[in-house]
Amino acid sequence: MTPVNLKSLAEELKMSIATVSRALRDSHEVSEATKARVRALAAARHYEPNAYASSLRRNISKTIGVVIPKVANHFFALAINGIEEAARQAGYHVLIYLTHDDYAREVAIVQHLKGGRIDGLLMSVASGTEDFAHIKSLQDTNLPIVFFDRVCAEVATAKVTTNDYESGYQATEHLVQAGCQRIAHLLISNNLSIGQFRQQGYLDALRAHGLPADPDLVLNGVMDNEQNLVLIRELLQRRPDIDGIFASVERLAISTYHVCRELGRRIPEDIKIIGFSNLESASLLDPPLSTITQPAYDIGREAAKILLRAVEKKKPILPGQSIVLDSTLFERRSTAGR
Amino acid sequence: MTPVNLKSLAEELKMSIATVSRALRDSHEVSEATKARVRALAAARHYEPNAYASSLRRNISKTIGVVIPKVANHFFALAINGIEEAARQAGYHVLIYLTHDDYAREVAIVQHLKGGRIDGLLMSVASGTEDFAHIKSLQDTNLPIVFFDRVCAEVATAKVTTNDYESGYQATEHLVQAGCQRIAHLLISNNLSIGQFRQQGYLDALRAHGLPADPDLVLNGVMDNEQNLVLIRELLQRRPDIDGIFASVERLAISTYHVCRELGRRIPEDIKIIGFSNLESASLLDPPLSTITQPAYDIGREAAKILLRAVEKKKPILPGQSIVLDSTLFERRSTAGR
DNA sequence: TTTATTTACGTAAACGTTTGCAGCAAATCG
DNA sequence: CGATTTGCTGCAAACGTTTACGTAAATAAA
Question: How far is the CA of B92 from the C1' of D28 (A)?
Fold first, then answer.
């Protein structure tokens, strides 16, 4: 089967390649009559322009990259959903890369992206990432970057986040008002900025309500879920006075449920739990889990919009374009008052 | 900043572009000495080959496409995870497209992919798709395609699925053995082949255990979740004799939980439920949900492997390469016997 | 020594598209 | 009526890479 490209169309129409190209791009330099002829044949032959030739020539790929830690996670899945929606509307394609929260993988991926494959990048950094040279170096190639959720403070660009400090404060206050006196905070990898904000909200809420801030009650989770089960079990056994748990990460809330079941701690009678989560089934858990839920879809969509706007206008992205969206606290039985 | 490409490297090294290119591709036509020099400079300049120029020239993009209905769904999220893993290992990139189970979108996406942007396609068809001309037409361009989970029988290629018939049979039998006499089957869009297989397994299991097959007990769900709640409520009210539910789709199982809660039906005392699901938190639901769980990650990975093997060897994919993986039945309290 | 073979590199033509420039007719203006 | 503009089209050069082919020198074979 002879390939269908500008050349073959031009030959069949007995005009030059240039005219065919212009006609298809709806250039004003082409008469309506020839445009119609060209379009008709292009449609008949199911012509699709070669994306790579076009990208090479125009130095524009109509593709954005998304680098995230994982996809099997409601938050990121919803975010991708929003990103894909915004990209599709703008006629962009979406390349996806998973770091699995591994610094080395993140570096390799970012380096690879310098090949000019994408016009812009959306990123949520790996929890293990402490050095940002790879990202800065990518930005130096004039590639627009927008961070979402797990942002990187050292890189000057727009960030789309949620009100993590306030959410941490609210969650803690919610537990206090439900009657908790000893509230633990479970978070992951405190070098992530969001973890720090939530932790600060937690601390300030404790202080505001006259509760002591006990470092022993702050647990830094790890990547491995089995290990987290052990850590949480140790914590609950070492400190039987804990009567409230604020989990900054969905996984840790789930793990806490498992440990409580194992140890025979009743939720919410013995211990109350609230966690960051985008679980659809939170209300069906036993007991229904109180959550702080981030607007994940909107985060993805807004981040993509900012990025695409910059890409289209070829303007640099300024930190001033950052957006902070509000999370929502859903009160359910896991924090029911006495 | 002057661009770093083969030309600039060649100039600096005072050799031809061809030699630089060959050196970087480790061609045997280049001496080790010059290879070393080239590699050193390339590394120093952080050279990354232009992906589009390379793709254009070699007619190979090192990119595969993934077209799925949605991503905010455990099954597909895990599948993507497997796909990305296999792709990364083989040095491939992953473009993602969501159809939202919309036929028109699927057609548009597939048509768009004819631009030569990808070397191969992984696909799980939209539930609304009944005509497969768009897919066949894409396959006619010699693009290798592998289906997974929601396959398309009309297109001759490899498919990666689970043992849906057996799973439907087992799930139904499991309910029978737990004491159910009137078992309903909730599925979505019966034109999907997987739905048909599961339905057949359901019917055969009923017959094998001497239970009548009542068409009134088979509910075809729709896209809209709110609407499904209404349908399920109607069914349970119209047929109070229903004492078992086999949900072919995770969402329908969740909706059933909500309806049961609303109607005051106790699970598992009044009604037992088992559903296809990849919910990590199934065991934490109230009550824990018995599930048939598909090996989603493996499905994605195996599908990607088949595809990539064909892409690399430039060989067509034969239906004979299809794989059927086994799902696992997890027995939990929602189907506890009397 | 002559001839064949190997090694290492350069030349230049592709891949399909976009676009500055030129050309050429018809239309408009001075 | 000549000069200029306007509308449409073609020519050809890019974009950065890969690779068939050519070639010169070095080595091996005769």
Answer: 44
Neighbours of B140 (CB within 10 A): 11
Q: 0.90 cut: is pTM over it?
A: yes
DSSP assignments along A67-109, one per residue: EES-SSSHHHHHHHHHHHHHHHHTT-EEEEEE-TT-HHHHHHH
Which candidate from A81, A98, A286 shows the least CB-CB separation from B84? A98
Say how far B29 CA is from C4 C1', in Å. 20
Measured CA to CA, the distance from residue A327 to residue A277 in angstroms comes to 10
Nearest to B150 by CA among B113, B116, B185, B187: B187
pLDDT tens, per residue, chain B with 338 residues = 678 999 999 999 999 999 999 999 999 989 999 999 999 999 999 999 999 999 999 999 999 999 999 999 999 999 999 999 999 999 999 999 999 999 999 999 998 898 889 999 999 999 878 889 999 989 988 899 999 999 998 999 999 999 999 999 999 999 999 999 999 999 987 567 888 899 999 999 999 999 999 999 999 998 888 999 999 999 999 999 999 999 999 999 999 999 999 999 999 999 999 999 999 889 889 899 999 999 999 999 999 999 999 999 888 899 999 999 999 999 999 999 86
Q: How many CA atoms lie within 13 A of B304 on its CB side?
A: 30
Of B319, B304, B309, the C-alpha closest to B154 is B319
Beta carbons of A224 and A250 less than 8 angstroms apart:
no
Say which amino acid occupies B199.
Q
The phi-psi region of residue B329 (left if phi > 0; otherwise alpha if psi is between -120 and 50; otherwise beta) is: beta
How far apart CA A22 and CA A56 sit, in angstroms, is 17
Beta bridge partners of B30: none
What pLDDT shows up at residue A80? 98
**Interchain contact, B48 vs A98, CB within 8 Å:** no
Interhelix angle B74-89/B296-313, rounded to 10 degrees, is 40
Let me know: does B243 contact B180? Beta carbons within 8 Å.
yes
Residue A85 CB-half CA count within 13 A: 18
Q: Which nucleotide is nearest to B16 (CA to C1')?
A: C10
Q: Which residues contact A21 (CB under 8 A, 6 or more apart)?
A: A6
Residue (of B299, B194, B287) closest to B248 by Cα position = B194
Instruction: Quote the CA–CA distance of B280 and A281 in Å, as a whole number.
Output: 10
Report how far residue A178's alpha carbon sits from residue B54's, in angstroms, rounded to the nearest whole number. 62
Number of other residues whose CB lies within 10 A of the CB of residue B160: 27
Q: How near does any CA of chain B get to the CA of A210, in Å?
A: 34
CA of A31 to C1' of D1 (A): 30
What DSSP character marks residue A285? B
**Cβ count within 10 A of residue A9:** 22
Measured between beta carbons, the chain B residues lying within 8 angstroms of A77 are 71-73, 77
d(CA A95, CA A304): 13
pLDDT(A273) > 90: yes
Q: Chain C: nucleotides under 7 Å from a protein CB? A: 7-12, 14-20
Smallest Cβ–Cβ distance between B284 and the set A81, A96, A285 belongs to A285
User: What is the percent of chain A where pLDDT is above 90?
Assistant: 82
pLDDT in tens, A133-186: 999 989 988 899 999 999 998 999 999 999 999 999 999 999 999 999 999 999
Token pair belonging to A251: 């996984």
Which residues are within 8 A (CB) of B332 and not within 5 positions of it... i.e. 6 or more apart?
A: B282, B283, B287, B288, B289, B290, B291
Using a CB-CB cut-off of 8 Å, the residues of chain B touching A58 are none
Report the nearest residue to nucleotide D14, CA vs C1'. A57
